[in-house]
Amino acid sequence: MQRLMILMAILLSVSTTASAQIGKSVTVSAGTPEDKALTEIYAAPDGPEKVALLDKFMADFGKGDMELLADQLYVQTYLAQKNYAKVYEFASKELALDPTNLSAAVAMVHAAEEQGDVKKLYDAGDKVAEIVAKYKNASAPEGTAPDQWAEQKTANLANVQGDVGYVEYALVNAAYKTTDPAARAALFERYVTTFPDSQYTPAVREQTAIAYQQAQQIPKMLDTAQRILVADPNNISMLLLLSDYWTENGQQLDKAAADAQQALEVLAQAKKPDNLSDDQWQVQVLVEKGLAYSAIGEANVNKGRNQPAVDAFKQASPLLKSNTVLYARNLYRLGFTLAKMQRIPEARTVLTEAVSINSPYKSKAQDTLNKIGGPVSGKTKSKSS
After folding, report:
1. How far apart are CA 366 and CA 382, in angstroms?
2. Gyration radius from the chain CA atoms
3. Residue 277 in domain
4. For position 81, which CATH number holds?
5. How far is the C-alpha of 214 from the C-alpha of 21, rounded, in Å?
6. Closest to 200 in 3D by CA, of 22, 16, 9, 19
7. Phi, psi for 380 (deg, rounded to 5)
8. What phi and psi values does residue 98 have, to the nearest 5 degrees?
9. Average pLDDT over residues 14-20
């Protein structure tokens, strides 16, 4: 997840929220009764007084374009008041009058995000994407030259990029915070379908595969990861995900070892992203290299090649120290392999360290250690016991 969240933080920090410029524009002639009423509305604070003024404006002028304008002002006012039910009500009225009105859909996203209502958030996000897509494909209005229309569209799309970027961030962030991995994967899938070309989509695709793995939906995990690799054969995260899964389950061993080796080769050429500090990049690369060597070692163990496995596990160990679980697993793998080779003193030392770490591999290491005569002399069985 770290890669995705750092990307989101950086992109949000450079994004500026603009007022959406897609949808029908309403003009009010200066000096008219409508203009005078609106001047008073704009000057009023976002509270009951403004709502009362809007109610009067709607009663006096609320037909046609003035109704649309009033709905827009209701939405802004109720959003400031955090009256989310009213935001949805008037934004829906606004969209009924003008289905191309991007600001109404963005306001719904704001309301849903502030409420923490993921369903409404994604429904509103779908509406934002639909409006933008239709606008991109819209033909020039009658009386507008194609070149002028293309220039106008480009400018308007640039103006709304801050709003669209905010919407994309809100949806990804909501999915990321979803604790149930199956539900999180479903949201990520929905996001990729709705925003296939967003700046977050490549990272979201990776996180979809990882969420399926956490949900134990292995066929979907494998399918997602393999589809990513078809499009991006050097995707380090997916190479490691697949090599780790296959070796952990004793399957596809040649392919798994090849994927892990490919990940090492890509990592050797990888450049530090601008959004990572030197320390963050170093930790990430070390762990990923450690994962690759550990997968190569496990592939060799499953193929009966114990000495190459030991060599790979020993290469992996110092690289994985920043990740307790992965480090403990690699120690267990190394100790188990040494025990198989009857290198008992070495195996005891390694397994004793694995037992001292509170991880899912603690009991496995203890079982193997018991079978070969217990911990090394003078060592306790567990630091936590």
Report:
1. 9
2. 29
3. no
4. 1.25.40
5. 41
6. 9
7. -80, 160
8. -145, 90
9. 42
- What distance in Å separates the CA atoms of residue 312 and residue 315, rounded to the nearest whole number? 5
pLDDT, tens only, 141-152: 888 898 999 999
H helices within 215-277, ranges in order?
A: 218-231, 236-248, 253-269
Q: What residue type is assigned to position 318 of the chain?
A: P
Structural domain range at position 10:
2-170
Residue 366 falls inside a structural domain: no
Q: What is the pLDDT of residues 275-321, one digit of tens each?
A: 778 889 899 999 999 999 999 999 999 999 999 999 999 999 999 99
| Long-range contacts, 209-218 (Cβ 8 Å, 24+) | 209/238, 209/241, 210/1, 210/237, 210/241, 211/181, 211/182, 211/184, 211/185, 212/181, 212/182, 212/185, 213/241, 213/245, 214/181, 215/180, 215/181, 215/182, 215/184, 215/185, 217/182, 217/185, 218/245
Are 106 and 128 contacting, i.e. CB atoms less than 8 angstroms apart? yes
Contact 5, 176 (CB under 8 A): yes
CB-CB contact of 297 with 310 (8 Å): yes
- Residue 162: is its pLDDT beyond 80? yes
- Token pair, residue 218, equals 């292995």
Instruction: Give the burial string for 178-198 (b: 16+ CB within 10 Å, else e).
Output: beebeebbbbbbebbebbeeb
In a domain, residue 306? The reply is: no
- In the numeric block, the tokens 């399926």 are attached to 212
Phi-psi region of 271 (alpha: psi -120 to 50; beta: other; left: phi over 0): beta
272 occurs within a structural domain? no
Total domains present in the chain: 1
Structural tokens at position 129: 């994407």
Q: Which two tokens stand for residue 384?
A: 């936590």
Helix axis angle, 33-43 to 65-80, nearest 10°? 10
Q: What is the pLDDT of residues 217-228, one digit of tens each?
A: 999 999 999 999
AA letter at 1:
M
Q: From CA 163, how far away is CA 170, in angstroms rounded?
A: 11
The full length of the chain comes to 385
Q: What backbone phi and psi angles, to 5 degrees, belong to 356?
A: -75, -10
